[in-house]
Amino acid sequence: MSVKAPIIVIKKKARHGGHHGGAWKVAYADFVTAMMALFIVLWLLNSSKQVQEAVGGYFKDPTGTSKRVGSDMVGAGENFVINKDNMAKLKEQLQKAIREVPNFDKLKNHIDMTVTNEGLRIELMESAKGTFYDIGSPNLNSDGRDIVVVLAQELGKLPNKLAIEGHTDAKAYSQGRNYSNWELSSDRANAARRLMQLNGIGENQVTQVRGFADQRLRKLDAPLDPSNRRISLIVQYLVKPEPDDASVGEAAAAVAANNATSAKPPDEKPSDQQKPAALPAVTPTSLPH
After folding, report:
1. Is the domain defined by 81-236 classed in CATH 3.30.1330.60?
2. Cα dist. 255→10, 44, 241, 252, 266 in Å?
3. Rounded to an integer, what distance in angstroms lies between the CA atom of residue 9 and that of residue 274?
4. How many CB atoms lie within 10 A of CB 40?
5. What confidence tier does 286 reach under pLDDT thresholds 50, 70, 90?
6. Could you tell me the sign of the dihedral formed by the alpha carbons of 128, 134, 138, 142, in that order?
7. Lowest mean pLDDT: which of 67-81, 152-166, 229-243?
8. 75, pLDDT greater than 70
9. For every residue of the chain, which 3-state class applies, written as one string?
10. 180-214 as b/e, with b when 16 or more CB fall inside 10 Å?
């Protein structure tokens, strides 16, 4: 009698494949980086022009020494307010900015910055051969344009108002009777204003353009000295607005009313007619047990 061999069934358990490496991590990191870049671009598109220029200036010049943007000026104009406490700091920043101007070594002795009661006074003084303007002309030369443009780019970041003055020496203007030192000083100040407003100064930032001819000499003992021929840029302090007459009157009326109320004598003892009515008598039988 033959015996059948037992049937042996071998079951193999299917195993899941291992992880597919770390490629997914790289793809996820790329996705997160792209999303971050997208949000930064969207933020920049909704930011002010000063912020966009500052960010762009940082990537062009991370050290912050660029003469146009990305400099160390403290924040944008709305965050950097010049007052009597930090006007000296503005002077240092402007001096640092104009050092980047071509031919600065030739011009530095003709630039003077002084903190005064009116604000920061920046004076660009002429030489006998002309430094910033063509001789006898209201037109800025190349060196004058370079200096004025840099100053405009820095001062345009501030909310402070500016005044521009033109001055001449005591020598009479010889080219024609219808044009004198009065016209020359005014025209030079206006030429500086136009160039500054094309390079960063706001339309409403300049409040005054003055032409003084030879009435405010820099050197009184030398009225013909070339340094008397100059333009002056005054960065004015911010002035807090004073309350108008209406608000002052309302405040005074409120104080007077308050004083009158506090000075009112206490009410007199109420008369019999003003006394409250007596409560009805309660008998013991009406009380609850």
Report:
1. yes
2. 103, 50, 22, 5, 20
3. 113
4. 11
5. very low
6. negative
7. 67-81
8. no
9. CCCCCCCCCCCCCCCCCCCCCCHHHHHHHHHHHHHHHHHHHHHHHCCCHHHHHHHHHHHHCCCCCCCCCCCCCCCCHHHCCCCCCCHHHHHHHHHHHHCCCCCHHHHHHHEEEEECCCEEEEEEECCCCCCCECCCCCCECHHHHHHHHHHHHHHCCCCCCEEEEEECCCCCCCCCCCCCHHHHHHHHHHHHHHHHHCCCCCCCCEEEEEECCCCCCCCCCCCCCHHHCEEEEEEECCCCCCCCHHHHHHHHHHHHHHHHHHHCCCCCCCCCCCCCCCCCCCCHHHCCC
10. bbbbbbbbbbbbbbebbeebbbeeebbeebebbbb
Q: How many CA atoms lie within 13 A of 279 on its CB side?
A: 3
Highest mean pLDDT among 33-42, 171-180, 260-269: 33-42
Distance of CA 55 to the CA centre of its chain: 16
In this predicted model, what pLDDT tens digit does every residue of 271-283 receive, in sequence order?
445 555 554 444 4
pLDDT tens, position by position, 6-50: 777 777 666 655 556 678 888 899 999 999 999 888 888 887 776
For residue 58, give every residue at least 6 positions away whose Cβ sits within 8 Å of its Cβ, in sequence order, or none: 64, 70
Q: Which of 37-41, 87-91, 266-270 has the lowest mean pLDDT?
A: 266-270
Mean pLDDT for all residues in the chain: 78
Structure tokens at 157: 């970041």
Q: What is the pLDDT of residue 26?
A: 87
